[in-house]
Amino acid sequence: MAFALVLAITGKNRPTSKTKYLIAFHFSLLLVYILFLIGISSGQLSDEYKGLIFLIFFCSGIITFGWILRTEVNIILKIYFGLFVASAAGFLFSPSSTLYFIGSGNFQKPFMQEYPITDNLYLHEQQSMIKSSAKYPLYKVVRKTGSFNKALSRDLDFEGTVDSIWLIS
After folding, report:
1. pTM for this structure?
2. In which region does residue 43 sit, left (phi positive, over 0), alpha (psi from -120 to 50) or beta (all else)?
3. What's the pLDDT at 134?
4. Helices and strands (H, E) in the chain, number of each type
5. Where are the domains of the chain?
6. Are strands 148-156 and 121-125 parallel, antiparallel or unpaired?
7. What residues contact residue 121 under an 8 Å CB cut-off, 6+ apart?
8. What count of other Cβ atoms lies within 10 Å of the Cβ of residue 49?
9. Lowest mean pLDDT: which of 74-78, 93-97, 106-110, 154-158?
């Protein structure tokens, strides 16, 4: 975002040939991502690098917006690339969901187990976009504060899968 802002501030008279190359690069990344999704759905490719390809595609959209903002480019392209920058508004409302979307290319987070401990304390299954080789999942204790959660403790290992909680006081 900062790099796109610098490009937007400094770029009034950019050569159109470089602009066309940048736009073509962005749309070629979109094509690679679509072909990658087709390969995953047909079972020929694993989804290991899907998030990385989407991240590069998304960041190129933000950078391209900064590049073309003050140039003589079609307004439709400016609106298209402006949608990538509009993701900043999504970050203000739900930072974790926005970062998960940008990093993985998925709109919906995977189902996360949640177990109530007390009034607003919960035990959550800890999730990561990076695949772990751990045999059992890790957990975290979370305090719910409205629409945001505050993690009080992370990396709790019960050496097994939790299916319920019995509170002893």
Report:
1. 0.67
2. left
3. 67
4. 6, 4
5. 2-104, 114-156
6. unpaired
7. 141, 142, 143, 144, 152
8. 12
9. 106-110
